[in-house]
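@channel sequence for tomorrow's demo:
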Amino acid sequence: MNDRPLKIVYCTPALYLAGGVERVLTLKANYFAEHFGYDITIILTDGKGKPFAYPLSDKIKVIHLDINFEELWTCSFQKKIWVYLKKQRIYKRRLTEELMRIRPDITVSLLRREINFINGIKDGSKKIGELHVNRANYRNFEANDTNVIKRIFERFWMKNLVSHLKRLDRFVVLTHEDGASWSELPKVEVIPDPLSFSPQVQSSLSSKRIIAAGRYVYQKGFDLLLHAWASVEKRCPDWELVIFGAGDRTPYERLSSELLLQRCSLNGPTADIEKEYLNSSLFAFSSRFEGFGMVLIEAMACGLPVVSFACPCGPKDIITDGIDGILVENGKVSQLAEKIIYMIEHPEERTRMGANAVRKSERYKIDRLAKDWQQLFESL
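structure tokens (generated this afternoon):
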């Protein structure tokens, strides 16, 4: 019997950004090291010298390969290809050296640049791919434009990606909806993201305040939410909408002015989102697409019922329509407004759905989902 701890390596670009992927990776790695005693190493390519956005257990080793792919952001298109190929060669060489030295049992790729070569590294480890966006929007996080050349490139790129994913020992996605879209792959597992906090209390649902949260980008659909809010405000003038998030608020502030909104505040990111959920009575989710929708389960854990677009992918996995929230046809602004008004005018429904939302959120607690990962790791 081999008593040594399971040795796991994660490959991800950086940990200095305060994003969802960074938060979830930190949460899981800390739990695996502290509770399961796993020997965890995280290998980074970017952000050398920058402090981590989330606290990392001192039991976790971090190796910085110092590739600096972020330099590509400042290159001209012609230079970008040459710089990318050069950096990719360096990355492949350095990552191979580290994996051959560490000899992990399992190597997890968060499906960034290493997915192109990781299956070819003969370090003896089982290879897992972990995807944090949905398939349809994997190459198109923010953009709302498309063209023929781009579509041809994306088809070629996806075919190439699928050939790499087929060689993995396991491929993990966040939702059953997204899992079904990878029909070419034989070994797809669904393990959702875990809750990042467990509230000790729930909202009283008594304040006349609706909350939304996320980055100010096209994906999050705050323009659609503001259009819906214009209708809600007319019917329910004593209620307010508050939005929290990072990014450029300017276009949304302009839209708010054009719509003559009186009871809507667009805020930057908050250090205590839990407090903001607890001071609200309903969560509005207007994303055009998602990988999962972490804010949904956070709001539900705080006792908030949710009115959400049934966008791909996440809401349909998380919300049971009419039980712990309401699902609205994706992009239907008038329906979003109508359902928000319904929840405002029916406090007993808010209370019922809010209580069910708390119960639903229990299944996303880290100790529960960590067992799914433990089972996966140890089966390999």
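heads up for whoever presents: The mean pLDDT is 94.
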